[in-house]
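Example 370, ligand pyridoxal-5'-phosphate.
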Amino acid sequence: MTIPDPIAPSRRVLMGPGPSDVDDAVLSAMARPTLGHLDPDFLVIMDEVRAMLRSVFRTENELTLPMSGTGSAGMETCVVNLVEPGNRVLVGVNGVFGTRMAEVARRAGAEVTEVQGEWGRAFTAEDFRKVAGGEKYDLVCVVHAETSTGVLQDIPPIREVADELGALLLVDCVTSLAGHAVEIDAWGVDAAYSGTQKCLSCPPGLSPVTFSARAADRIRNRTHKVQSWYLDLSLIQGYWGEERSYHHTAPINMLYGIHEALRLALVEGLDARFERHARNAKLLRDGLTELGLTVRVPESERLNPLTTVAIPEGVDDGKVRRFLLDEYGLEIGGGLGPMKGNTWRIGLMGAGSTRRNVALCLDGLRAALA
Ligand SMILES: *Cc1c(COP(=O)(O)O)cnc(C)c1O
């Protein structure tokens, strides 16, 4: 073989469903020298990451840490640690990620009941109540920000139902964390996971998770070993806790990245950051409407970091996205599942949620449609 040249990816504007644009400060942090995973200087960085994660999740939960792996690893971590074979799990399924959660729970040996919802709409508490039929459940799972459809789910009503069923509540916050308010303690969420490459604007590779005291108790009192060795929190806590005992080698430079990304979010201020996401999402939707395009999802259920828009009749999805990439260096996302081929997904996440990106995307779409 001939040895390839060094890679030289050109800079794009990432306005798809993730990864999102990474702040230069995060990339610089990741280029710092790699330390040993038990180096005292690295242990300080780990502690700071945990403390900042608690602030961003708005929780006091002791068991809060970033798992090695992407958002799906966080999903799997929550499920395999909380679920024992034969447990009854109720999952809201109104998009790709609810579907995935149900599958992960089934593979963990749960008896899964799906609450089927319309793609592109949020759930009401009644949707969950009807399917649950007043029976007891061990765990209720729901997606806060469905990136496949652009829907934001109100969490407190689902918490109420979980209480009625005697269940813990697990929430997917992959696309909401640092883009919409996530109130782990105020909402009484028992377990949640996120990812680095959406509104935290860090490359993909870590999945922050957090567990309430009740959820941590459930994990401590398991009767079966967690089926995954790599994701077993009772082992991983040995490394993140006081003992600092080896489990797997932490992805050191990724942790530098999330350290900087969390710092930037807190320096901006969470409320100011949510406000920025809301403001730019509104500009984008108004602009899309002016172009004659139809924004999907009823207004009160829309996600600010991700807007779904209908592809007009007769317009070639692939051609438009290729044009944007070639002519503007701009990436937007196509649809998934029933929205494949008829929907674009436009992300305004983290560092990418700017007025300039809104203007660029609208100009690109105008040119593409012409
Ligand atoms: C992106 C995403 C995931 C999966 O994350 P990966 O990093 O792709 O593994 C899970 N849930 C939601 C809502 C997402 O947007």
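Summary: The first strand starts at residue 13 and ends at 15.
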